[in-house]
Specification:
Low-confidence stretches: none
Strand order of the largest sheet: 2-1-3-4
Strand content: 15-25%
Radius of gyration: 20 Å
Structural class: alpha/beta
């Protein structure tokens, strides 16, 4: 083989799973230890193929709907959160249900509930169909949470009362994209209530910041994670925006 030039490998810091993901994985492992296999998990506990395959090998069974779970076995709700109808159905079936929702996602759910109690309509910045989006929008009755994915969506919003609006965000979005949409919401609805604190997960923000710091030094970005993960996709997209050849690696 010809001699190849040396490569310099940079490892981002921080990197790896956030506390909410670590917590969710441990909850499934503890459930398997406590009740034995099989333990059912509604939706992938986290969007990571390696983790899901490893837990499946230990006896976890991943399903998309609660109706796919037998009533006599425990079920764990994923870190992304679930609509209110899901724990209600589990209670009606007298199932053992364990909630592994990320505490930050729960914080967003609580924000939505407080605004709803005050008669405020919610606008949710997120990705349609993502498990976290489905779970958060499912906290309130239909029509009480309106979804926007892009700045263009803001222009077509039909709201009940422009003076009684608030917005919340999916926790794993790009900081830049969320800022642009939030600015568009504030421009169109000057009285809209913004979150008291940034709802973008601190771990998401930190990892995107670490990538920005590395960007001037690197030619290629390898993001280790699954295509179903919002976090890893946002990192790859950010790399491309910064002019770096960027790839996702599952394993």
């Amino acid at each position: 083989m010809p001699d190849l030039p040396p490569l310099t490998l940079y490892l981002a810091a921080p990197r790896g799973f956030c506390a909410g993901v670590d917590r969710a994985i441990k909850i499934v492992e503890m459930a398997l230890t406590k009740w034995g296999a099989p333990v059912y998990v509604r939706h992938e506990i986290v969007h990571n193929k390696y983790v899901v395959d490893a837990l499946r090998a230990k006896g976890a069974v991943f399903v998309e709907e609660l109706e796919d779970c037998p009533s006599d076995r425990p079920v764990v709700f994923s870190a992304h959160g679930v609509p209110k109808s899901v724990p209600a159905e589990a209670a009606a079936r007298q199932m053992i249900a364990v909630d592994a929702t990320c505490p930050l996602v729960t914080k967003v759910h609580n924000e939505a509930a407080r605004h709803h109690e005050a008669g405020t309509q919610m606008i949710y910045i997120g990705h349609a169909g993502h498990a976290e989006t489905v779970g958060t929008m499912g906290q309130l009755p239909a029509g009480e949470v309106l979804l926007v994915e892009t700045v263009a969506d803001v222009a077509t919003l039909q709201v009940r009362d422009p003076a009684k609006l608030a917005f919340i965000t999916q926790t794993t979005l790009s900081v830049d994209d969320t800022a642009d949409i939030a600015a568009a919401l504030k421009a169109r609805f000057p009285l809209i209530h913004a979150p008291a604190h940034d709802d973008i997960c601190y771990a998401t923000t930190n990892r995107q910041s670490a990538m920005r710091q590395m960007a001037p030094e690197v030619d290629v970005l390898l993001v280790i994670g699954s295509r179903t993960s919002s976090n890893t996709n946002r990192l790859r997209e950010l790399g491309e925006k910064l002019g770096i050849a960027s790839f996702l690696l599952d394993s």
